[in-house]
Design brief:
With 170 residues, the chain is of the alpha+beta class. The chain folds into two domains: 2-70, no CATH class; 74-169, 2-Layer Sandwich (Tetrahydropterin Synthase, Chain A). The chain has six helices and eight strands; from the N terminus they run ααβββββββααααβ. α4 crosses α6.
Length: 170
């Protein structure tokens, strides 16, 4: 190694450094997005584009991948909560929501934490829907509760580029 460096003159070292810099720059510009993901790219801190799965090229040192968002279905466990029915009976209810991100840019820039936001929306909507029912009606009409809950949540999360596939009451 010492004999190689001693045989290189100043121009050779500069050419070697430039070649290494070019290889590094090309390496930084190539993005291979895996199937099941979309990557959100920022240019100098501002949203630029969303990279689809496959091969993509970005401008190195100017563009950066800010978020890597899954396009697979996401299962959100909604914690148990006490819900009071119209006839003042306390029910403990929890749910599971299945969501899918359609627009990653809206999901990451439209709300700080979309999972937390969806959990809160489901909890408050579930309390509201069951609170308008009697105990017998609440226990016997799960499908109606699911439909009302899905309708209430879907409109709100559509602004975040997210779709609610289904919600299951447990």
């Amino acid at each position: 190694m010492g004999s190689i460096l001693s045989s290189l003159n100043g121009v050779g070292i500069v050419m070697l450094v430039l070649a290494a810099l070019v290889v590094f720059t090309v390496f930084k510009s190539v993005c291979i997005v895996p199937q099941g993901y979309k990557w959100v790219v920022q240019r100098l801190g501002k949203y630029q584009q969303t990279l689809e799965p496959g091969f993509s090229i970005i401008i190195p040192f100017v563009d950066r991948v800010a978020y890597k968002v899954t396009t697979k279905d996401i299962v959100l466990d909604i914690p148990s909560q006490e819900v009071i029915t119209r006839d003042n009976v306390v029910i403990i209810a929890n749910a599971v929501a299945y969501i899918n991100i359609l627009r990653p840019d809206k999901a990451v820039y439209g709300i700080e934490d979309y999972e937390h936001g969806i959990r809160n929306l489901v909890q408050t909507s579930l309390r509201s829907i069951i609170g308008e029912m009697d105990l017998d009606n609440a226990l016997s009409s799960r499908d109606e509760i699911k439909a009302l809950l899905k309708h209430a949540i879907s409109e709100d999360i559509a602004d975040w580029g997210i779709t609610l596939k289904t919600v299951e009451i447990q």
